[in-house]
Design a protein that fits this description.
This protein has 416 residues and is mainly β. The N and C termini lie far apart (92 Å). It contains six helices and 33 strands.
């Protein structure tokens, strides 16, 4: 032991009864803190102690000035500059000597991490960290510092923990405005000489009070028969994070291209996950092609008074090719390569003419039926040459009037 604390070992012992008298006097100014420091410690005194000595002292000191009231000073809690003109007696409280040397506290955390799971925003969440003093001297929680000053508050149950005793730190976290994955930390400063700073971690996922999946609906590609029957039923899953009633009103999409079979008011009692079924049908005069309309959900939550749910649908023409693209793939041999193209549509469609910029392409039409027309499209590899095929097949079809269809033609010829 060196420095001031080593010198203190040679200071004269206080008079008999000084410890008891000192304990009694502490009640006048800082009873709980100074009295706890006396527990199990050796008590020495000195007639004067300089401010510089106070700066380097790493042990509690009780100052008895010649005039005025006693003052307790702790190395990590007080500023010795406030005692520039102090004179009198100093009682220095030294930790007891154990078999392993000077006694010291040991800050032991049960766990340094708390996972809050999913937490709704605009709410205060709590995390509790339990710890124990595994040392043989008093443990002091000197300071706490949070990574998020405005959203995290740390409160220590007892700042002084005797040897073998336990304590706890409770963190309060305001989640407002912090949606998504959240990570907070608290740095705890103690008088444990081997572990003066401990970092506590709090994780979780902050969710909005109301969420829904999917964020948009895709009714898919609908042929003539599918369009007449209507797209398959849809489902929106609503997640309510708060334990309060939710009221949802469903309205028909704008532009009225799609019609909801069921509209009106739906109610959910409280917190949980529930389904919102939606069944659509297409207007008979909905034109072929791709469409995006919006179903409107109105709720009783101020932040979500109106929720727009995009709905996508593609309606097939009354006559359309299957497949939509003729793909010949990779061709390595000479000869004729054929693919089948079906013009789907009722009413016995009939091929009037065709043309294509792809060399070596030919088209042979089958017999029209009430379900459509089958075409055999052939490619003469020798005439087509070599390399990438990229072009179109233009078809003119009689189907209650003349219809013009364009089908992409692609492939790759590598003939040696």
């Amino acid at each position: 032991m060196t420095g001031l604390q080593g010198e203190m070992e040679n200071w004269p012992a206080p008079e008999p009864g000084a410890a008891e008298a000192l304990a009694e006097m502490t009640g006048e100014f800082d009873g709980r803190e100074a009295l706890a420091a006396l527990n199990g410690a050796r008590l020495l005194y000195r007639e004067s102690l300089s401010v510089e000595e106070l700066r380097i002292a790493r042990t509690p000191v009780l100052l008895l000035p010649t005039e005025g009231s006693p003052t307790a000073w702790h190395p990590d809690q007080s500023d010795p500059d406030t005692m520039d003109h102090w004179s009198g007696e100093a009682f220095v409280l030294l930790p007891p000597i154990t078999e392993n040397g000077p006694a010291q506290p040991v800050f032991h955390l049960a766990s340094g991490k708390v996972d809050l799971g999913t937490v709704p925003d605009d709410r205060t969440a709590s995390a509790v960290f339990a710890f124990r003093n595994d040392g043989d001297a008093d443990l002091r929680i000197l300071n706490t510092q949070t990574s998020c000053g405005y959203c995290t508050v740390a409160d220590v149950e007892l700042p002084l923990i005797p040897p073998g005793a336990t304590g706890s730190l409770q963190a309060s976290i305001r989640t407002s405005g912090n949606r998504g994955a959240a990570n907070y930390s608290i740095t705890v400063k103690t008088n444990d000489p081997d572990n003066p700073l401990a970092v506590l971690e709090i994780t979780g996922v902050v969710s909005p009070p109301l969420s829904w999946q999917p964020r948009s609906l895709n009714l898919g590609f609908l042929t003539g028969e599918q369009a007449a029957l209507g797209p398959p039923p849809q489902r929106v899953v609503l997640s309510l994070a708060y334990d309060r009633p939710l009221i949802v009103e469903v309205a028909n999409p704008e532009e009225s291209l799609l019609i909801l079979e069921e509209v009106g008011r739906r109610e959910q009692a409280g917190q949980g996950v529930w389904d919102l079924p939606l069944t659509f049908r297409l207007k008979p005069d909905l034109s072929p092609g791709k469409h995006v309309v919006h179903t409107e959900l109105t709720t009783n939550w101020p932040e979500y008074e109106r929720v727009s749910l995009p709905v996508r649908v593609e309606k097939a023409a009354s006559l359309y090719p299957v497949p939509e693209e003729l793909f010949f793939g990779l061709v390595r041999e000479r000869g004729i390569v054929s693919r089948t193209l079906v013009l789907t549509g009722s009413g016995h469609p009939r091929l009037l003419s065709w043309k294509s910029g792809v060399n070596g392409l030919s088209v042979e039409a089958g017999e029209p039926t009430d379900e459509g027309l089958t075409l055999k499209v052939s490619l003469d590899v020798e005439r087509a040459g070599s390399g990438v095929i990229r072009g179109e097949l233009e078809l003119s079809v009689d189907h209650g009037g003349t219809r013009e269809l364009r089908v992409p033609v692609t492939g790759l010829l590598k003939v040696e």
